[in-house]
Amino acid sequence: MTKPNVLISGASVAGPALAYFLHHAGYDVTVVERAPALRDTGYAVDFRGPALDVLKELGILTELREHDTRMGGTTIVDEAGNEVVQLPAEAFGGELDVPKRDLTRILHRLTADDVEYLFDDSITALTDHGPGVTVEFEHHPAREFDLVIGADGVHSNVRRLAFGPDGDALRHLGMSGAGFSTANHLGLDRRGLMMPGKASILLFSTGPTEPLTVSLSFATASPALDRLTRTEQEQALRDAFAGYGWEAPRLLTAMSEADDFYFASSCQVHLDHWHRGRVALIGDAGYCAAPTSGMGTSQALVGAWTLARELSAAGGRHEIAYTAYEERLRPYVLENQAAGRQAAASFSGGEAPPAIS
């Protein structure tokens, strides 16, 4: 009997986790990733609540604990660098914090022998013709799949192809910003420093000899800056931080020299349904709660585990499985999205956007 085959777009966290569970449920799994190789960047990610149970199911919880950053608290300072208050580690971290590069490397190793990975490629067209989905790729020949799952982030290519333009699905939370690393000139040792406000600075390091991770955020009316060039994004940051003291001038200089600079706006994804026909979405692609929620990685893992479990329980009948997956997961997602909106408002000094049902 031929195994049902599934294509997953995205090889970060949700994609490989889902690939692992589906392979063990009897699926033939392919993962396509537009990056040329496994990504080796990203902040430390934290896990809370049910995500720890998923890590146990994956069999990697003990190994990940060996990579725990064991971050301490964060000192809040004013624009002159004067200490305002000390926050405990729990304010920004979860029950377990690990560098994202370690998580993605472990997930890839866990699945590499059983799952086909297509790096340096992306989906260009999806045709759901009832019995299956015809998938066209940028580089590989077109192929047929029984199911297609988008695990490709907040600006999901699969979502755009299957659901159409984002429209109101992508909700801006009033913040944009950049992240990069630089020399740890402050000697931070498993601690953070934060200057909140309309333009905010968050700095942390996992050790005195480790790089300083920098996040510069500022209030914006839309995510339009995401589409600009790096030069234009850097100028927007200089404009936002003009006149600020403390570490701002030094960090703006370091920003231009960083080779791991990235820019993103804080957004949420809201959809009435996370599936259409044989195509479904997991993680940020379907229900991003925004980085301010602190739940992105946990939500990705729980979403992958829930979808795989429902597909297995439904005997591969995707319509039943997709519906059950949404019903089971949506309360958890709504709670995380509410937290993301509230945190975005507290960082920027504004009011939280209204709740969305």
Automatic annotation (TrEMBL):
Signal peptide segment: none
SUPFAM superfamilies: FAD/NAD(P)-binding domain
Gene3D superfamilies, sorted: D-Amino Acid Oxidase, subunit A, domain 2, FAD/NAD(P)-binding domain
A family per Pfam: FAD_binding_3
FAD-binding domain sequence ranges: 5-333
GO molecular function, one term: FAD binding
Superkingdom classification of source: Bacteria
InterPro entries xrefs: FAD-bd, FAD/NAD-bd_sf, FAD_aromatic-hydroxylase
Name this polypeptide is given: FAD-dependent oxidoreductase
Species for this entry: Actinoplanes utahensis
